Amino acid sequence: MTKLQLKAITSWIVLLPFFNAVSGQATKEDLSSKLLILFDKAKKEAQKGNLVKSNKHYEKLLKAKPDFAEGGLRMASNWYHLKEYQKAESGFKRVIEAYPDYDPEMYYSLGMVYQDQKKYLPAAASFDEFVKRNTNNPEKKTKAASLRDNLLFRSQAMTNPVPFNPENVGNGINTNFSEYSPSLSLDGGTMIFTRNIGQEDFYISYKDSMGNFGKAMPLISLNSVFNDGAHAISADGTYLVFTSCDRKDAFGSCDLYFSIFENGKWTIPVNMGHKVNSAAWDSQPVLSPDGRTLLFSSRRLGTLGGNDLWMTWRNEKNAWVTPVNLGPQVNSAGDDETPFLHPDGMTLYFRSNGRVGMGNFDIYVCRRNDIHEPWGEPENIGYPINSEGAEGAFVVSLEGKKAYFSSDTDYKTGKNMKQLDIYSMDLYERARPRPSTFVKGKVFDAVTGKPLEARITVKDLTTGNTVFEVPRAADGWFISGISTGINYICIAQYPGYRYYSQNFDLLATATPDKPYILDIRMDPVEKIPENIPVVLHNIFFNTGSAELLPESASEIDLLVSLLKENPLYRIKITGHTDNVGSDADNIALSVARAKSVADALKAQGIDNARITYEGKGESAPVTTNDTEEGRRQNRRTEYSLSKL
Predict the structure, then answer these.
(1) For a Cys staple, 347 with which of 74, 254, 342, 577, CB 3.0–4.6 Å?
(2) Under a CB-based contact definition with an 8 Å cutoff, are residues 593 and 602 in contact?
(3) Pairing of β 569-575 and β 637-643
(4) Do 358 and 370 fall within a single domain?
């Protein structure tokens, strides 16, 4: 008998004497001196941990006084701690049926008995009865309500399991030590993970030609004599954020550090500073697809529960700002940990023990439609991915079909191992992120070839939602995960330069193994020859109409910004058509479309004197009109600039 078990038993002994007498049932005062001695012996044997002997005394007592409810509950409690659940269930039910108002605690105890027998619905009903009756212990009432909700979920989830086919990733990664906290490169060909060999160190493994992970090697330039783990790597593979504990320069027990990959090796790790780190525990980082937002788990002041998810981001000066809490939509009154932000930028996975689930740490997924929007309601990803145990970190591949996690379960035998291994699984469709690839680009001066640290914005052309933003493209380069199946607009802006605006269609043209590459050349406004036309790739009209479609809004806004930033320039809008229809109709349509764009500029405050427009119909094609693609290119709207 452990001290913990004895404490649980004696808690019953403390509670029961305060039960109120109920009409029709015997109390201590109704016991004869002989039965009082027997009752005292039963309690003392229980206090010493001799539960079987204690129950023999209770059996004699209850045989003589079957209506002594306190004795019946004490005996049922002993059976429970002896794991004789059927006897415990019968004992509690016997008293409840005879004296339903005796004390609310007996409903809580019966709920525990049912739960340990995996009788989830009866257990939930018992906890619910306790909640309805209990008024003196609000903390326990809250716990009972949580148990009730979890049991109802557990019953439903186990009745409707989700697909789950875990596979060990192989002995290239897994050993007799514990391996956990995996992260993947965008192409899925490289895994960095933590191995505990008496201390936590980083290891790296690459997939071979057969798609299997090869023998992992230690990241010697990053590993130290301290515990180093729980990391995130940027999409371009050059910036690593990780957790290290008990270093001399730490602000708390565990802090976040960063290292940069330069000249073929990682730089000496540097603490991310007092703005990011706190005097508390800060760990489990994950970077956004563009590398400019960092999510992590922390116990710092301001948490809503135990560990909460927090977010920081780089400002215009490329410095990390003071973190903010993700708020009650994501964080619970419990612990919320191990965030993983998928490369689509819109899907977040994390684990929590403060939400309705299987009863311990479960994996949840929540989504959003725009990087500026709050996260939606977290959704439990289901049983048996989530079990009655504690689930750990969960990461998902770029295309969204494969997930990786660590577990101490040998799924072939169902037995518990002495260490953690990393597993993969096919992620069922409802729990997947958006199918994704990645976009990579370079921005430079079209005249000199010099890289430009431009502001990059990518939007969903249909919804107008911002997918990712890069305030300053370092050395002109940017890279980010991005969802497929969507038509996008990519915008590059840099002071003194004509903006770049191009739409790229990923409805069917890009896959994870074939990323979209952008080569962005920007023209200095002062060096642009006057009246040279530029195609407005993101101006759209209804077929055969001059009515602007909503997808044109981003391009109109860019033209307005360009004109406001360059007040000494005027603009001419020119409309063109293909050769379908009469010359007169095409001229009229091209003029009307150019006028629609001009009117949209005026509506946003651009002086009418700075705007002219014209239509050229089918007279100035840029390619053949003999094909649909050629006609599509000829149907265009252009602008040109000239000085006032």
Answers:
(1) 342
(2) no
(3) antiparallel
(4) yes
Cβ-contact 181, 193 below 8 angstroms: yes
pLDDT given for residue 121 in this prediction:
96
Maximum CA extent, the chain: 116
The SS3 call for residue 7 is: helix
- Looking up tokens 């018992």 gives 126
Residues 155 and 73 in one domain: yes
Structure tokens at 541: 């009209």
CB 154 within 8 A of CB 383: yes
Question: pLDDT band at 297, cuts 50/70/90?
Answer: very high
509, part of any domain: yes
The model's pLDDT over 21-45, given as tens digits with 9 standing for 90+, comes to 444 577 888 889 999 999 999 999 9
Same structural domain for residues 223 and 311? yes
pLDDT in tens, 501-558: 888 777 665 555 567 888 999 999 888 788 889 999 899 999 889 999 998 998 999 9
Among 377, 411, 431, residue at a domain's last position = 431
What is the extent of the structural domain holding 241? 173-431
Report residue 636 as tokens: 């265009």
Cβ atoms of residues 591 and 613 within 8 Å? yes
In a domain, 208, yes or no: yes
pLDDT, tens digit (0-9, with 9 covering 90-100), for 557-577? 999 999 998 999 999 999 999
State the CATH number of the domain containing residue 94: 1.25.40.10
- Rounded CA gap, 453 and 313, in Å? 18
DSSP H stretches of helix in 218-295? none
Structural tokens at position 258: 């960063």
How far is 451 from 448, CA to CA, in rounded Å? 9
What's the CA gap between 538 and 551, in Å, rounded?
7
Same domain, 152 and 204: no
> Between the CA of residue 117 and those of 20, 83, 86, 107, what are the distances in Å?
29, 10, 9, 15
